[in-house]
Design brief:
Helix content is 47%, strand content 12%. By secondary structure, it is of the alpha/beta class. Helix 10 links the parallel strand 7 and strand 8. The two termini are 33 Å apart.
């Protein structure tokens, strides 16, 4: 459960600081349904850019932003459907689009879910604490951005091998940026840095996305309903929501599967990881290039007992498709030889590297279960190619210019040639094995107890209890906003 104990003195200071900074906090209800946002706020948003450091952009932490960089309001959930000419499968694959969040990534939502409950209870004192955001990239970007909007000091921690775009942006937003050794799969080094900060400073509060139930709660209440609404917009009564597939970074997005299963009991939930770091599939380890996923541990907030399949994706496929989807020769090939429309080809830039991995998980899932054109598989595109332009430059430097022949080869080998290898249906015993892997990270290293670990497996209320807290948190947010008087 998320601790909602009130610290009255710190809460009063937070309210005063919010009033001074003009901060109004959206509720989870408003993020899921922006039509409930007060009209005065929506009027002001028409003059605010999507990435502007403006507290009003807290109300754009939603899947339903108008897809524009300047002054947009709201509509239905942003999603695309991938054409069969691209995927090679009959199943309909739909992808929620993360680009149209502030910062260009949905991780601002996960960060919001972690910080705001502590802010509106006073457990986090905005006049004293610094919010520490350990991450492999996008979560610390979202956390630093939310911190600025809320008038909170922040410290971003991420591996030094992450893309240049992340560091360039953070240098202007975060109060402090700490680069730890390694790259994508070096999360242990990030955790070690957070413990160093805990031991040496008393003004920090760690928001660890891998264990914060606020991350789970945001995806359960915002991402899950957005996927449901996207599916319903396509369904004429004959379609079946067969599954959701998400690669595991923090595993927060998997909470949307818990939400969807309540209304679609036949739904299967699949978790993906890098083949080069097959922790779930094979108790494995290693380094890989799919930024944002697969970190040599099982996140605390992954409801493993509710996970049906594990899928390993080769990072070579992802890097090859990054070029196919974004090089002029690649887009030309997909249009002329595969029959994609100009818009469908342009939509592929909405996929970052982990988005490509999510797409590949969905394709492998559809092939494995022999899904038909009446079946729908859903996933998310965490961010877009905008976060990986430097990776494209590196690939050009290492592999040369991209030709039509390269495009044909990559389409055949890395997309249409994707097979149902390195997939594991999780039986009860397999799920328990994966769950047990949490012990080594969370009990031995991070201070959790065996009783807490066992509760995640044996006590369903460990999950349903968190799910039910959204109304209590929204009530606290409403009280906070009323105390600032800004809505008046």
């Amino acid at each position: 459960m998320i601790d909602l104990t009130i610290d009255d003195e710190a809460l009063a200071r937070n309210i005063g600081k919010a009033k001074d900074n003009g901060v109004i906090i959206p509720t989870f209800r408003q993020m899921g349904d922006p039509t409930t946002i007060p009209e005065g706020i929506t009027e002001k948003l028409t003059t605010v850019g999507l990435w502007d450091v403006n507290p009003l952009n807290l109300f754009r932490i939603t899947w339903k932003n108008e897809p524009t960089q300047e002054g947009g309001l709201f509509g239905g959930p942003n999603f695309i459907e991938l054409p069969k000419a691209l995927t090679g499968v009959d199943a309909r694959i739909i992808c929620l689009v993360g680009k149209w969040f502030p910062t260009g990534c949905h991780k601002v939502g996960a960060a919001f879910g972690c910080l705001v409950p502590r802010l509106v209870t006073g457990q986090f004192d905005a006049t004293y604490h610094k919010a520490v955001w350990p991450s492999t990239g996008n979560f610390c970007r979202g956390g630093a951005f939310n911190s600025r909007l809320l008038g909170v000091d922040s410290i971003a921690i991420l591996p030094q091998g992450m893309s240049r775009e992340r560091f360039d942006w953070l240098s202007n937003i975060a109060g402090e940026v700490i680069a730890t050794p390694g790259s994508e799969s070096n999360v242990k080094e990030i955790f070690d840095k957070t413990w160093e900060l805990r031991r040496t400073r008393d003004d920090v509060m760690i928001f660890n996305q891998f264990e914060e139930m606020g991350n789970y709660l945001w995806h359960f209440n915002v991402t899950g309903p957005a996927i449901s609404e996207a599916f319903e917009s396509l369904d004429d009564g004959s379609l079946n929501l067969a599954g959701v597939c998400f690669t595991s970074g923090s595993a927060g997005t998997l909470a949307s599967g818990d939400y969807l299963r309540q209304s679609h009991p036949g739904l299967r939930i699949a978790v993906g990881e890098a083949l080069q770091c097959p922790t779930i599939v094979n108790n494995g380890f290693g380094a890989h290039r799919i930024e944002g996923i697969g970190d040599k541990h099982v996140p605390w907030i992954q409801n493993v007992k509710n996970t049906d399949m594990a899928i390993a994706v080769d990072d070579n496929d992802c890097m090859a498709l990054l070029r196919l989807f974004n090089e002029p020769a690649g887009k030309a090939f997909l249009s002329s030889e595969c029959g994609l429309t100009e818009q469908q080809a342009e939509n592929l830039a909405l996929m970052g590297i982990s988005g490509i991995a999510n797409m590949l998980c969905a394709i492998k899932f559809a092939k494995y279960y022999e899904l038909t054109d009446r079946d729908v598989v859903a996933t998310v595109l965490t961010d877009s190619v905008d976060m990986y332009r430097s990776r494209l430059e590196e690939l050009r430097e290492s592999d040369g210019e991209y030709s039509p022949t390269d495009a044909a080869a990559d389409d055949a080998a890395h997309l249409l040639g994707v097979r149902t290898d390195n997939m594991l249906e999780l039986t009860y015993k397999e799920r328990k094995r994966v769950h047990n892997l949490k012990y080594y990270t969370w009990v031995e290293q991070q201070g959790r107890t065996v009783d807490e670990l066992n509760a995640l497996w044996y006590d369903p209320s460990a999950w349903t209890g968190v799910q039910s807290q959204v109304d209590d948190i929204d009530h606290l947010i409403d009280q906070f906003n009323a105390a600032t008087g800004l809505l008046d």
